[in-house]
Design goal:
The chain has 63 residues and is mainly α. The protein has helices at residues 6-24, 29-36, 41-52, 56-61. It is globular, with a radius of gyration of 11 Å.
Length: 63
Amino acid sequence: MLGKTPLSYFQDLRVEQAVHLLKTTSDRVDEIAAKVGYSEGVTLRNLLRRRLRKGVREIRTAN
């Protein structure tokens, strides 16, 4: 957590969990967003793009 704000740290945790769910389930993005603490899938999609520079399809198909 060094050098990160609490918000940034928690966003990292949420992104990590969302990536895991995207790779291991066929849940819709809105469902995954709700599971990791976001009210809308669009918020999660934007965060994935900003943090990972990847979209949902790219994450789901990556090995």
